[in-house]
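User: Please predict the structure of the protein below. I'd like the answer in structure-token form so I can feed it into my own downstream comparison script.

Assistant: Understood. Taking the following sequence of 350 residues as input:
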Amino acid sequence: MKYHHLLLAAGALALGAQGATAQDLTVTSFGGAYGAAQQEHMIDPYVAATGTNILFEDYGGGVAEMKAQSESGNIQWDVVDIEVIDLERACSEGYVAVIDHSILPPGDDGTPAAEDFIPEALHECGVGNIVWSIIFAHSDDAYPDGGPQTIVDFFDTENFPGKRGLRKRPQVNMEWALMADGVAPEEVYEVLATEEGQQRAFDKLDTIKDDIVWYDSWSQAPVLLNDGGAQMVQSANGRIFAAIKDEGAPFTMIWDSHVYDLDVWAVMEGTEKMDTALDFIKSATMTIPLSGMQDVAYGPTRRSAQALLPEDIKQDLPTAHLDKGLKADGIFWADFGESLGEKFNEWLLQ
């Protein structure tokens, strides 16, 4: 691990020494085991190499806080880790800046960045950090005779009683509802784009509404399973992986109908620290730091980083289960996110 740090520090120094200052940089991400891995593999080595003071903050995701900062003109964040399912909207509405990908260094094996990154990782307004997935997991203690195995089971409160922990937003919940109601994964967004399809999703969610425990941040998902607040939860895959690996938690991850996506590093439009923000992103998305995200079972977005992963680790990554999953459609949510968000909040109050 120290060897990784030295390699990253050397790379960051080469990238950042020219503009290294004691200037503070505010970087925002999702906390928990994920944030801890970013701290270890990206934040701390960059600070050590450049002398930049980084304030590393947590948030719950979405675009609401970015929108508030943008509209008030009070930009408090510089770099933000954002889910691609939200990035299209943040980019189109000008909350995050366009990034020139030509600034990105080649991989450690010499492969130019444009070829080293997987295609989905280089977005107009971001640079890919991880490939991750939203899965559901259940407590083994709650289902000693065998727990739910499919998204249909997740909605089956008769055969699998108990509370379901869900993130309090329409994204993924709407997709899951339609797949549980028989819609093929490849048709989900086509159906969800219609009034009838949206109502169909809400009707399916109605069937478990009384058994839902809502939460706001991914960090709450394993806590709900741990303390018995829910018997199954929706979660970023790395959160449950970390609980099982690091704490020996009696949880089972279910990959059926998982919704996979990428996270990217983006820069807040209007930041006064653009050069430092871009320098950090260049460092954080080099081969070695990206490979470090294997610690929490997220796939790196550079091929040169993927090549460093042990074979047994690869099986814990979302990329090993894409045949069971649905790619989140960021363009759909850019178009429908606001209207479905309003409908979702209205449904919550019914």
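That's the full token string. The CA atoms of residues 103 and 210 lie 50 Å apart.
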